[in-house]
């Protein structure tokens, strides 16, 4: 089975971006959420990147 990057419908807090990345890379989504938080606090670009990822990544149910 081919691995696809998509937003998670099961492991999501807001839009499922971090859950989808965690499932794709086999990493705990909490670690990815902490990285997003560091991007937001350090550079302020994390929010913009999260919104872009939420728009670009397909939903898990559509793939």
Task: Pick out its properties.
63 residues, mainly alpha, 3 helices
How many structural domains?
Answer: 1
Given as residue ranges, the uncertain stretches (5+ residues, pLDDT < 50) are none
Report the helical percentage.
40-55%
Please give the oligomerization state of what you see: single chain
The fraction of residues assigned to DSSP E strands is under 5%
Structural class: mainly alpha
- Rg, alpha carbons: 11 Å
Give the end-to-end Cα distance, rounded to a whole number of Å.
Answer: 12 Å
Order of helices and strands: HHH
Main β-sheet description:
none
Shape verdict: globular
**Integer average pLDDT:** 88
Number of strands: 0
Number of helices: 3
Q: What is this structure's SSE topology?
A:
Elements: H1 17-25, H2 29-42, H3 46-56
Helix pairs in contact: 1-2
Characterise the protein shown here:
- With about 60 residues, the protein is mainly alpha-helical.
- It has one domain (about 1-55).
- The chain is built from three helices and no strands.
- It has helices spanning about 15-25, 30-40, 45-55.
- Helix 1 (about 15-25) packs across helix 2 (about 30-40).
Question: Could you give a quick summary of the protein structure above?
Answer:
This protein is mainly α and 63 residues long. Helices cover 54% and strands 0% of the residues.
